[in-house]
Amino acid sequence: MQPHTSDLLALLELEPLEVNLFRGESRDIGSAQVFGGQVLGQALTAAARTVEGRIVHSLHAYFLRRGDFNAPIVYHVDRSRDGHSFSNRRVIAIQHGEQIFNMTASFQVMEEGLEHQVEMPKVPPPEELPDMVEALRPLIDRLPERMRRFINQPRPFEFRMVQPVNPLAPGKQPPARQVWFRMVDRLPDGEALHRCLLAYLSDYYLLDTSALPHGMSFFSSKVIMASIDHAMWFHRPLRVDDWLLYAIDSPSASGARGFGRGSVFARDGRLVASTAQEGLVRVIRK
């Protein structure tokens, strides 16, 4: 297992401080603040540590303040309810004495029921698409410093974009994209671990899609983007060390906010999760 994979797994292995109280380290991934996916993954890990015999099926979270990646984050879990089939948990993330994030998650005993789903989009397989980082290598010297730092950051996962990306000339595009992604190493079994890792990865590209029709992106100097909330629903068993397709669209942007929603499909076409996010998309005026 590569060191970057081991480091990400260690990031999700929280330190227990007391009953219902955990501490997680932070990492700098090249963004201006703690990556929202890190806080999502750690908060879900903290909640899962207080539940037995049940697996998360949904979460709803709010990002309240920018996180500091130079300091750890403390997670307090409130055991709101344990019913016959469902358990509910509320998690508050604290840093420097202030709440930076809160989340409610619901866990369910695995059971069978009605089955249907939408079809996976017809897109080229990941083997026919270039790795995102390698595709940007020829442009690296011409990119802004913030983008170079983000791209050059070592990661334990890879992305392959169905739609070509040119950050130097993004142009105006339809508000939709599809991205293949996976962890680069084989991971231990355990549905809880793979769902926490998917929560971590689900924060990539979701809000950014709402800026596509305007020729902007997360790296644009003309716009400030930050997650406000994040929701996930887990439908079926999944593995993040197998290829997953993230199909994202943005039905609306208004009021200095962008809205994105995503469907996550396994390689065999199963819909394994759905996501939704609204975030700040504020154009900088001179």
Key terms:
twelve-stranded antiparallel β-sheet, 286 residues, Porin, 5 helices, alpha+beta
Overview of the molecule:
It is a single chain. By secondary structure, the chain is α+β, with helices and mostly antiparallel strands. It has a single domain (3-109, 129-283), classed as Beta Barrel (Porin), CATH 2.40.160. 16% of the residues lie in helices and 37% in strands. It is built from five helices and twelve strands. A twelve-stranded antiparallel sheet has the order 1-2-4-5-6-3-9-12-11-10-8-7, covered by helices on one side. Strand 1 (15-18) and strand 2 form a beta hairpin. Helix 2 packs antiparallel against helix 5 (191-201). The longest helix is centred in the N-terminal third of the chain and has 13 residues, at 36-48. It is globular, with a radius of gyration of 18 Å. The chain starts with a helix and ends with a strand.
List the helices and strands and how they pair.
Blueprint: H1 3-12, E1 15-18, E2 21-24, H2 36-48, E3 55-63, E4 73-82, E5 86-95, E6 98-108, H3 132-136, H4 145-152, E7 157-161, E8 176-183, H5 191-201, E9 223-234, E10 244-254, E11 257-266, E12 271-283
Antiparallel strand pairs: 1-2, 2-4, 3-6, 3-9, 4-5, 5-6, 7-8, 8-10, 9-12, 10-11, 11-12
Helix pairs in contact: 2-5
